[in-house]
Amino acid sequence: MFLPAALILGLTAAVSASPGPSHGPGHGKAPNSTFYNPIFPGFYPDPSCIYAPERDDTFFCASSSFNAFPGIPIHASKDLQNWKLIGHVFNRQEQLPRLAETNRSTSGIWAPTLRYHDDTFWLVTTLVDDDRPQSDISRWDNIIFKAKDPYNPKSWSNAVHFNFTGYDTEPFWDVDGKTYITGAHAWQVGPYIEQAEVNLDTGAVGEWRIIWNGTGGMAPEGPHIYRKDGWYYLLAAEGGTGVNHMVTMARSKKIGGPYESNPSNPVLSNANTTSLFQTVGHADLFHDANGNWWAVALSTRSGPEYLHYPMGRETVMTAVGWPKADWPAFTPISGKMSGWPMPPEATDIPGVG
Questions:
Q1: How far apart are CA 64 and CA 341, in angstroms?
Q2: pLDDT 10s digits, 121-172
Q3: Which residue, among 262, 272, 277, has the nearest Cα to 322 in the 3D structure?
Q4: Per-residue pLDDT tens over the stretch 72-85
Q5: Long-range CB contact pairs, 262-270, < 8 A, 24+
Q6: Mean pLDDT of 8-23
Q7: Residue 334 in contact with residue 18, Cβ under 8 Å?
Q8: 45-73 burial string, b = 16+ CB within 10 Å, else e?
Q9: What pLDDT does 75 receive?
Q10: How distant, in Å, are the alpha carbons of 77, 105, 233 from that of 171?
Q11: Which one, out of 13, 31, 89, 311, has a CA that is 20 to 30 A from the CA of 195?
Q12: Which residues carry out catalysis?
């Protein structure tokens, strides 16, 4: 079904508008847009979004699904305003039969990363058995799915497994032709982000190396790497998924580091505020056809008391200004948002939905 902005407004508390991004490509060429959070009401945590101009200028987003089946929902939009649930990556028992063994509410599919490369949609994620010790490699089943047609459930492959004692894995294709997997873990030696070369078709991985330890917040998660203006930017979340959740960033001239932390960290968080929107974190960045940057993140509409949030962890969106060779600036999350001019309204998304 579509989730039009007017409907989302009805589901969102009335809060003041946040200022739009103050710098970045496209600013000043057209009036800022107004949009409303959450863009996906209800339980859609850990969003990962891309813009695929080769696929009819469409935006695609994936979300965590834990023990739900079908799992890993995919939403699509052409205008960033009307979103359609076009299907699920995990839609057949034979794709991942081990899901039936994970009974705990915090088990199942964690934090998928969706990317598009060489005319193929790739999704890398972790199946977690939360009843097993953190040091047990069988607790973490890291997997790769791929598809040529995300509107067709049968297009999504069976899982390709790879060895990594951790979670929240993502693929990255470097300019030299090498492919990497980056992932997170927090136990024994402390929190860290690791990286290794990978063959996405076979799951074969090279040596894992620690590339960043975060800023000191607990439980680093959701690492994403972006190459821009000669820098490798590493986005992550820290602080746990409660009210101290935050988005942090580091960068390096080399894919393997060393990574230097942004002196303005955290780059996005509603911790220690009175906002209805709390637990903001686990973000992903993408740009539109005009080169303007956006971010999605998870959030709960709980208020700072964090006592009642029946809609669960939802997906919110914000505008990001990203000057050349500089750090990005995120607009704080609220219900009514101001951001870059959006594409023209369009609801002609394929698929049954």
A1: 28
A2: 999 999 999 888 777 778 899 999 999 999 999 999 999 999 999 999 999 9
A3: 262
A4: 999 999 999 999 99
A5: 262/327, 264/327, 265/215, 266/215, 266/238, 266/239, 267/327, 267/328, 267/329, 267/330, 268/295, 268/297, 268/318, 268/330, 268/332, 268/333, 269/239, 269/245, 270/299, 270/332, 270/333
A6: 35
A7: yes
A8: bbbbbbbbeebeebbbbbbbbbeebebbb
A9: 98
A10: 23, 27, 14
A11: 89
A12: 46, 221
User: Has residue 5 got a pLDDT over 50?
Assistant: no
For residue 38, which amino acid is it? P
Are 142 and 94 within 8 A, CB to CB? Answer: no
The residue among 207, 330, 312 whose CA lies nearest residue 266 is 330
- Asked if residue 213 lies in contact with residue 190, where contact means CB atoms within 8 angstroms, the answer is yes
The CATH number that domain 5-339 falls under is 2.115.10.20
> In 10 A of CB 323, how many CB atoms?
13
Q: Which of 57, 15, 21, 65 is nearest to 40 (CA)?
A: 65
**Which residues does 109 contact at the CB level (< 8 Å), separation at least 6?**
64, 65, 66, 71, 72, 90, 99, 125, 126, 127, 128
Q: What is the pTM of this model?
A: 0.91
* Alpha carbons 62 and 259: distance in angstroms, whole number: 27
Domain ranges of the chain: 5-339
CA dist 302 and 313 (Å) reads 10
Instruction: Give the separation between CA 171 and CA 123, rounded to whole angstroms.
Output: 8
The answer to whether residue 14 scores a pLDDT higher than 50 is: no
Do residues 90 and 74 lie in contact, with contact meaning Cβ atoms separated by under 8 Å?
A: no
To 5 degrees, how large is the angle CA 87–CA 93–CA 95?
A: 75
**Rounded to whole angstroms, how far apart are CA atoms 81 and 267?**
24
- Strands laid side by side in the 293-301 sheet: 277-287, 293-301, 314-321, 329-330
Please name the residue ranges forming H helices in the chain: 5-11
The candidate with the shortest Cα–Cα distance to 67, out of 21, 23, 104, is: 104
Q: How far apart are CA 294 and CA 21, in angstroms?
A: 10
The residues, any chain, with a CB within 8 Å of residue 306's CB and separated by 6 or more, are: 242, 243, 278, 279, 300
